[in-house]
Design a protein that fits this description.
Helices cover 35% and strands 18% of the residues. It is an alpha/beta fold and 268 residues long. It has one domain: Spore Coat Polysaccharide Biosynthesis Protein SpsA, Chain A (Alpha-Beta Complex).
Length: 268
């Protein structure tokens, strides 16, 4: 029996009931309670709210209403999680596709994290565990684990994946993220990449326990990129420098391992 509590939150737009039905169908044997969370609809976001939430823009272009609505949806979901009093909040967007190991691997990873929090396991543990889009280059984080262990594990990716499809939060991490980003200064899936700002340990599950359906997002459709602009180049250059400095500070010159068979490969 698990010694921790967890809840799954499904972020879904009210006008997309078929997407909710599809993901709920995948969760009928979920090891954790599942709760629907109504997403903020960018089509109904008022201009006043948009201006208020974007008054401190740190991105290379203005955010769209859909991006702001997505940011606000995840914020409100995290606020709900912190009020529910559970140990872990598993936040899924409605286009998530659960992988076969989801129901068995996720409880094992959460049990490891819970023991670490209570001082009965290695102290090197995550604050946010992303369940999708693991990079092929990463640092091992679970002491004693190997790539041939056959057990799911957490790894620290060389680059934090931007995909905000599925992640597990601790209450402290959720509160920290909320306090760091009270406004939508960038798209929410980009904010999580700024480790030196929010100071959270963002790791990934290996193997990926969730993948995207491939359907277009209804929550936070991204605006067309204009990466050729001078502002975009300056933005990217600043990010690369800060990211490199953060990596050097935390890992020195140690090189990450490489997964030659891809992030979705079996661990056996």
């Amino acid at each position: 029996m698990s010694t921790f509590t967890a809840k799954i939150y499904i972020i879904n737009l009210a006008r997309a009931p078929k997407r909710l039905e599809a993901i709920m169908g995948q969760l009928h044997e979920s090891p954790f309670p599942v709760e629907y969370f109504a997403a903020v609809d960018g089509q109904t976001l008022s201009q006043e709210d948009y201006r208020r939430l974007t008054r401190k823009n740190r991105y290379y272009r203005p955010l769209t209403k859909n991006e702001v609505a997505c940011h606000l949806s995840h914020r409100r979901c995290l606020e709900k999680f912190t009020q529910d009093g559970v140990d872990f909040g598993i936040v899924l967007e409605d286009d998530a596709v659960l992988q076969p190991m989801f129901n068995t691997a996720l409880p094992l990873l959460l049990e490891k994290r819970f023991r670490a929090r209570n001082g009965t396991a290695a102290p090197d543990s995550w604050d946010v565990l992303k369940l999708a889009d693991c990079d092929t280059r990463f640092w091992e984080t679970d002491a004693g684990q190997t790539t041939r262990s056959g057990q799911p594990r957490s790894v620290e990716c060389r680059r934090v994946p931007a995909l905000f499809l599925a992640q597990v939060w601790t209450p402290a991490a959720a509160r920290g993220f909320l306090s760091t980003y009270p406004l939508a200064t960038r798209p929410v899936d980009i904010e999580i990449k700024y480790l030196w700002e929010h100071k959270l340990r963002v790791y990934n599950s290996l193997p990926n326990l969730v993948c995207a359906s491939g359907a277009a997002s209804t929550i936070g459709a991204r605006a067309p990129a204009h990466t050729a602009s001078l502002r975009a180049w300056l933005y990217r250059g600043h990010f690369i420098l800060r990211s490199a400095a953060h990596t050097l500070r935390h890992h020195g010159l140690r090189r990450p391992g490489t997964m030659k068979t891809g992030p979705s490969a079996s661990l056996a």
